[in-house]
Every structure is written in C-alpha cells, then in structure tokens.
Amino acid sequence: MNEWLHDLFRDRPWWMNAVMVFCAWMAFVYMPWDIFWKPVSQDQEVWFGIIFTGWSAKLLAVPHWIVYSAAVYGFRRRRGWMGVAAPIYTAQVAFGMFLWPILQYGSLLGLVLGVIAAVPFAGLTVAFWNARDHFAHERQAHRDKYGDWAVVTGASSGIGLAFARALAGEGMSIVLTARREEKLREVADELEKQNGIATRVVVADLSTQAGVDAVAAAVEDLEIAILVNNAGFGYAGRFDKLEAERLREMVMLNCMAPMLLTHKLLPGMQARRRGAVIIVGSVSGRQPLPLHNVYSATKAFDLHLGEALFVEMRSEGVDVLVLEPGSTETEFQQAAGEITHAGESPDKVVAVALDALGQQPSVISGWLNWLRANVASRLVPGPMVVHVAKHVMEVQTPSEMR
User: Fold this and answer.
1) Nearest alpha carbon to residue 171 among 207, 139, 141, 204
2) Where residue 177 sits, what CATH number does that domain have?
3) What total number of domains does the chain contain?
C-alpha cells in the first residue's frame, strides 16, 4: 500500500495532490450520487455563478462529472492539456464564486462576500498557471534511463518491428529475434544504417524451450536494458475446429516464452537496479472471446503476469508494462486466419507503450479499445458481453471456422 501511495502522489506539489484527491472524490463518489440517487427536487448545480435547479441541474451535473473525471486522469498521467485546462476551470470557479453572492445579496455585502469567496480560487488559478510546465515534461530517453541494449522478440514485422525502430531511433542497440532470418537481416541492416547503432540477429523459434534458451545464451555477454516480449500469434475459429498442435504452440509462444525469457533476463536488471520488461498482450485478454478462445486466454495470462510483476519489481528498479493493443495493421490477421479488417498502425501502438512505460502496469492503445475493454465489462452483465463479443468475432472469422 505504501508503494502504491508513493507512486500515486510522487512528482506533484502537495496542493496539486490535494486537488487531485478532491477531483477523485467528486468523480467517483459525489457526482454519481448526485446524478443517479439525489432527488431531482433537491438538485442544484452552479455554472458561472448561476444556480440551476431540478432537471436542468441534473443535466448540467453530467459535464461536471466529465470535467472531474478528466481532471483525475490528467493529474495522474500528467497530460499536457491539463496545463491549460486546470487554470481555465479554476478561473471559471473563481468567477462563479465572485458572481454568486452578488446575485444572491446584491449591493456592497454581495460584492465583499464575492471577493472573499473568489480569492482562494483565483490564487489556485495563478498556482496552476505558474505550474503549467509540470504537465509539459519531456520523457527521458529510454537509453538514458535503462541502458544500451534492447531485446525485441518477433522483430521481423508488425509491432515488434515498430518497437525495434522506435528504440533504435533513441540510440539503443537492438537484439532482433524471430524465425525468419532473411527478414531479420534486412531489419538489422536498416537500423544500423539509419541510426548508427549495433544489432545482433538471433534466429529462434520461441514456441520451443530450445528457442528460449538460444536467445538467452546469445545475449549473455550483453547488459540487457529492455526486453520486449512481442512474439505471438492468434488462431481464429471454434475450439473444436482448431488443430491441437497449433493451439499448443500458441500457448507456448504467447505464455511460456515471455515468462521464461523474462525469468532469464530479469536478474541482470535487478543487479543493476534498472531495466524494463514490456509484454505485448491484447485487449482480448480483458474478457472471454469466442472464436478466439485460447488466444484471449493466453493474453489474460500475459496481463496478469505483467501487472503482478509491475508491483513486485517496482522496488527493484525494474519497470514492467503490459501493452494491450486492439486490431492492428500487421500480419497478425492473416496468420490468425481472420478476415482482414481495419486496425491501428503499429507505430502508434508502440508510441503509446513507450510513453506509458514506467508510469503504469498496463496500457490499452486507443480510446475505443479502452471503452470496449472497461465500460462494457463493468456496465453490462458478463454473459451478454461474451455473446456480443461472439457476434463481433463472427464478422472477422471465415464461415467454415465458425
């Protein structure tokens, strides 16, 4: 608990933490009660010093709820837009607190009370404006933070290739591993020429123990700063129509490989008290997914493993992150036997991960994916969620595999 509280409140001035706690109270306790339980006859809402009552107040409470919820997120993740949003909102409150007593009491008394009520919020507005650079910090380069070498599995294409390019762009040398040697050599040549970094190619099938051992042995002489567990594949179709051997390979590659490779490389990071592990999961791991049944189960394993390691390794100086993309424009769909459909670009997905690394245990790429993963599962009964998921997957799965 102490570690969580320290992580929650670190790197912010005390007064900003106090405002964040207040916003959390409003977003998660007061506003839900105000909107869903408080009688309409008792409802009051104030905007710009004007009091609204009844159904008008009920409706205008919704944007208040959105504002407080966004503020909690903005404070927690230090989003740049908070540098403008926070002083604008507190200035609006200061104006409302000044106008409200004047409208209520009029004359000199209202003016005096308005000034007294507005001063604290005006001061808060100035404080937020002066602290706006707090929300505009530049992320430390991963090479400076963690070290010189990164291992990227499944680096020949898709998200793995995007990780390799992004980290090489920051000056990190890359160990590239996958099964396609010719493709890996092409990637290695590209990264060396464009970024002036060193590379090492390790051809290995990580769905086997021998493949995992080969990668670990190939990097024994290197200080691995970041391990990107990206290698994996999906397999779409009804469970009884899927090949058992292919399912076994998927469990080995999606679950066993990242677990074993992390276990082998983690001690070096712990000894240096710096390093990072990224596990590429999937938003599919957030719920049972018919017609992608075993795949979603493997990604649930990755999610639970990574989020637990985030807490265990926090005090060891090692950051752990589970990246949860949705549909992405990679070879995944073809390899999984899906019908081609739209998705995010791998570069965008990787940018989300590298921005979140060291800040949180897991990150879902894309707001729509976040809504699908969180809102539905919390507001809709579980069986209904699974049936809806089946309908969605049917559109993406060939008829002979349904």
Assistant:
1) 141
2) 3.40.50.720
3) 2
Enumerate residues 6+ apart whose C-beta is below 8 A from 67.
89
Q: Are residues 395 and 295 in the same domain?
A: yes
Same domain, 88 and 207: no
What domain range is 234 assigned to? 142-401
Of 111, 135, 159, the position where a domain reaches its end is: 135
Model-level pTM greater than 0.85?
no
What does the pLDDT look like over 285-324, one tens digit per residue? 988 889 889 999 999 999 999 999 999 998 899 999 999 9
The pLDDT tens digits for 339-360 are 777 778 999 999 999 999 998 9
Query: Both 282 and 381 in a single domain?
Result: yes
Q: Determine contact, residues 112/63, Cβ cutoff 8 Å.
A: no
Specify whether 317 is located in the same domain as 225: yes
Based on the domain organization, do 202 and 226 belong to the same domain? yes
How far is CA 152 from each of CA 89, 112, 202, 284, 302, rounded to the nearest angstrom? Answer: 44, 65, 10, 22, 16
**Exposed/middle/buried for residue 41 (C-beta within 10 Å: 0-12, 13-18, 19+):** exposed
Out of 109-118, 277-286, 384-393, the most confident range is 277-286
Are 353 and 394 in a shared domain? yes
Q: What is the mean pLDDT of residues 234-252?
A: 92
Residues acting as catalytic residues: 295
Does 127 share its domain with 43? yes
If you average pLDDT over residues 143-158, what whole number do you get?
94
Last residue of a domain, one of 81, 115, 135: 135
Cα(336)–Cα(200) distance, rounded to whole angstroms? 28
How many angstroms separate the CA atoms of 281 and 298, rounded?
A: 8
Same domain, 205 and 301: yes
